[in-house]
Amino acid sequence: MCRHIAYVGAPVALREVLISPEYALYRQSWEPRRQRYGTVNADGFGVGWYADGDPVPARYRRTGPIWGDQSVVDLARAVRSGAVLAAVRDATESGSDGEAAAAPFASGPWLFSHNGAVRGWPSSLAPLAASLSSAELLSLDARTDSALVWALVLHRLREGDGMGQALSDTVLEVAGAAPGSRLNLLLTDGATITATAWGDTLWYLTEPGRGTVVASEPYDDDPRWCEVPDHTLLAATRADVLLTPLKEPPA
């Protein structure tokens, strides 16, 4: 169910994060090594990045597999950024939302991705959807579980919650409403990365003098990659990573 990655650090060409490593996200679209659910991530992809001096990220999203889009290869060669979030998608179920369903989702300074699936979608989250305003529901990018999870996170961010609080509270709320869901969430504001490991794999790599990468799986065999324990909140800057355990929601 999808693979995603985020990077913050010294400006690099996007290809150095997404394409050039031996087992990069590009290759993970057809040959992931650690994906537990699904086999091929060919139902869309997206790349979001930040330009110097502009807090609002740019995005490039498409419906088909990333390996069939030569434009993204050229873009990744030419564009440099100090903050990137990208994902390749394996849809939970078929739909007609097209590239609108592909992460990263975005609003203001934030980029967001969800790797996983909500158990019992859509009925399981109907009570949580009812807690959002009509305007928030009508603004959903797509009719997918990931888009609604993003709306719940965004609601908390707009109410003033920090990134870690917004992710952890949303995960616990959704897990309580839909037990057995896989909720690996990834969020960045261009300076920090916040993520949850909840039901699927998550790894990080901090390289002194370069930056920090957080990803569904390592993009190479560097022994410095660290796996994040399940039910954990991760908060990372270009130099540090903090891990905080998350408790199961009440029965």
UniProtKB/TrEMBL annotation:
Broadest EC class assigned to this enzyme: hydrolase
Superkingdom of source: Bacteria
Ranges of residues in domain Glutamine amidotransferase type-2: 2-251
PROSITE patterns: GATASE_TYPE_2
EC assignment: 3.5.1.118
Keywords tagged on the record: Glutamine amidotransferase, Hydrolase
GO biological process, one term: ergothioneine biosynthetic process
InterPro entries membership: EgtC, EgtC-like, EgtC_Actinobacteria, Gamma-glu_amide_hydrolase, GATase_2_dom, Ntn_hydrolases_N
Keyword Lyase found: no
Entry keyword Hydrolase: yes
Reaction catalyzed: gamma-L-glutamyl-hercynylcysteine S-oxide + H2O = S-(hercyn-2-yl)-L-cysteine S-oxide + L-glutamate
Pathway(s) served: Amino-acid biosynthesis; ergothioneine biosynthesis
GO MF annotations, alphabetized: hydrolase activity, acting on carbon-nitrogen (but not peptide) bonds, in linear amides
Function: Catalyzes the hydrolysis of the gamma-glutamyl amide bond of hercynyl-gamma-L-glutamyl-L-cysteine sulfoxide to produce hercynylcysteine sulfoxide, a step in the biosynthesis pathway of ergothioneine.
Matching NCBIfam families: ergothioneine biosynthesis protein EgtC (TIGR03442)
Protein name stated in the entry: Gamma-glutamyl-hercynylcysteine sulfoxide hydrolase
Organism listed in the record: Streptomyces niveus
